[in-house]
């Protein structure tokens, strides 16, 4: 089992910045991928950014150049630095941790943190 605790959401004006944090604990030694997703009511959860343990990074087109995903191995944490925020970035943001054991992927999700960007 992996436990994820997110923090850093809040209310910010358009053009502002926020930094989301996700701290992991538990059975994370076989971590494969870490990522951030977001969801607005009535829509599917969508990928914002992902980072593999090998260092590969992927961003949604809508956030490229504005958001940065990073990790701190010593703290078992992953971060999402969000700059130049837009009202359309408003969503609940979820941290996702993928652990691979014997070729099986196990997905773990954080509780979500609300990000609201006012115009």
Brief synopsis:
The chain has 119 residues and is mostly beta strands. The protein is built from no helices and eleven strands. It has strands at residues 2-7, 10-13, 18-26, 31-39, 46-52, 57-59, 67-72, 77-82, 91-101, 104-109, 113-118.
**How many strands, which pairing sense, and closed or not: the largest β-sheet?**
7 strands, mixed
**What is the overall shape?**
elongated
How much is the radius of gyration in Å? 14 Å
Structural class comes to mainly beta
Distance between the termini: 40 Å
Strand content: over 45%
Q: If you average the pLDDT, what whole number results?
A: 95
Percent helix range:
under 10%
Low-confidence stretches: none
Number of helices: 0
Secondary-structure element string: EEEEEEEEEEE
Number of strands: 11
Q: Overview of this structure, please?
A:
The protein has 119 residues and is mainly beta. The protein has strands spanning 2-7, 10-13, 18-26, 31-39, 46-52, 57-59, 67-72, 77-82, 91-101, 104-109, 113-118. The protein is 0% helix and 61% strand. The chain has no helices and eleven strands.
């Amino acid at each position: 089992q992996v436990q994820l605790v997110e923090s850093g959401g809040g209310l910010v004006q358009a053009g502002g910045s926020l930094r989301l944090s996700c701290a992991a604990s538990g059975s994370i030694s076989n971590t494969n991928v870490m990522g951030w997703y977001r969801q607005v009511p009535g829509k599917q959860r969508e990928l914002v950014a992902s980072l593999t343990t090998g260092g590969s990074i992927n961003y949604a087109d809508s956030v490229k150049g504005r958001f940065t995903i990073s990790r701190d191995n010593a703290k078992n944490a992953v971060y999402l630095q969000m700059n130049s925020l837009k009202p359309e970035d408003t969503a609940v943001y979820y941290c996702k941790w993928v652990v691979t054991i014997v070729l099986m992927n196990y997905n773990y999700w954080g509780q979500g943190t609300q990000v609201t960007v006012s115009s």
